Amino acid sequence: MGLPDMIRPPLPAREVRLRYTDASARTVYCTQVEVPFPEGRLIVSRTDLQGIITHANDAFIEMSGYERADLIGAPQHILRHPDMPKAAFKDLWETVARGDKWHGYVKNLRKDGSHYWVYASVVPNVRGGVITGYTSVRRKPSRTRVAEAAALYEQWIQQEAASS
Amino acid sequence: MTLNFLIAPDFSPEHFAGWHMLNTTLQKRSGTQLHLLTPTSAAEQAAFLAQDKADIVYANPFDAAHMVRTLGYLAFARPAKRFDEMVIACAAESAVQKVEDLKPGCRIAVTDNKDIKLIGQRLLEPADIGPADIAWVIVESYQAAARLAIKQEVDAAFFLAESFASLSRMTRSQIRPLVESAIHDISHVVLAHPRMAAQLPALSAALLTLQSDAAGQAVLDALGMSDGFEAITQEDAEFMIDLMDTLLD
Question: Are A40 and B127 inside 8 Å of each other by CB?
Fold first, then answer.
């Protein structure tokens, strides 16, 4: 079952219909509000091989704006912001499925339509030689790198729109 | 048969006696002969490991990654409610108000604790400062790091949070934290070599029940670990190692 549509926030917000790789879709709302990354902290979560969240630390819960019960068992794409190109996540999943580590700058969507930028690292959980899931750790990003990533992602999204 | 109990060299000097008390108490309560190894540097610890001399190890999290994944050690305990956090601080009178005020070429005092150095480097990323942009000033102790920061001979210094908190009131009044990590997922762990599997249940039980009586609690207090040790599974340790793997680059 797919995620329910987001609730329209009270602030002015862009409405977007997002379609995910599992063939589900939902309507999301994006405001212009950016929430700063909490100083000194790491946002940590784990997913299973299908990208379903199995663990979330307190910083993950706080920054997402969701309740823990909303997140555990939900697909990782619950945080997907429409400003993130599909190509970035395709690269992520292909990289970790090969058993390699992935790093990248990611704009995440909060429950209330605001967003936060992170520098994300994802590693496969290899147990007995077999990948059993993935651990993702997000840390406070460089604003210079965020500006570069935002410009690059905008180009990719335009290219994706042109080719679809 | 005597087992070697190796303590990672990053403990605070005031807890030195506490580790000997723990060693003695574990011997009595588990019926296992233990010999305490207290290397004074990362190099000395590496030499003990290379000689395969460590049967039980109180390991810092980054060394634990190598010991668990490469050497096959088993994780069985960690200090309860006690995480490895770090502080980046500068002189109280410094013009630097936040991490982003530090610039490439800045001088930073650091001890040889590589965990603290690594976490500190991650906290400097928002300032666009990479390891190559820093003029590292290697010091012997956190007290020495504090002195350099106070005299503004360095722009900032890295501290183990516990050591920062134990600096004298006078020293702390002259330095100012810029950022303190609050990771809560990284801690030291107690590891056992697979060859001592037969003795592990008795040793583990002795370690995990120290809080149950006054004598055991006194040992924990002397170690600065009043909340005692808690059991962990191998998967708990693997999770922490995966997490730290993400911090390496």
Answer: no
**At how many degrees (to 10) do helices B42-50 and B61-69 cross?**
20
Mean pLDDT of chain A: 95
ipTM metric: 0.90
B2-82+185-247 architecture in CATH? Answer: 3-Layer(aba) Sandwich (3.40)
- Judged on CB neighbours under 10 Å (0-12, 13-18, 19+), B90 is buried
Q: What is the pLDDT of residues B115-166, one digit of tens each?
A: 899 999 999 999 999 889 999 999 988 999 999 999 999 999 999 998 899 8
**Can you name the residues that pair with B57 across neighbouring β-strands?**
B6, B191
- Cα distance from A126 to chain B (closest Cα, Å)? 9
CATH number for the B86-180 domain, one of 3.40.190.10, 3.40.50.720, 3.40.50.150, 3.20.20.70? Answer: 3.40.190.10
Residue A81 pLDDT > 80? yes
Q: Do A142 and B249 touch (CB under 8 A)?
A: no
> How many CB pairs below 8 A link A and B?
59
Report CB contact under 8 Å: A139, B183.
Answer: no
Residue B135 identity: A
Nearest chain A CA: its distance from B125 CA (Å): 6
Cβ distance B247 to A141 less than 8 Å, yes or no, reads: no
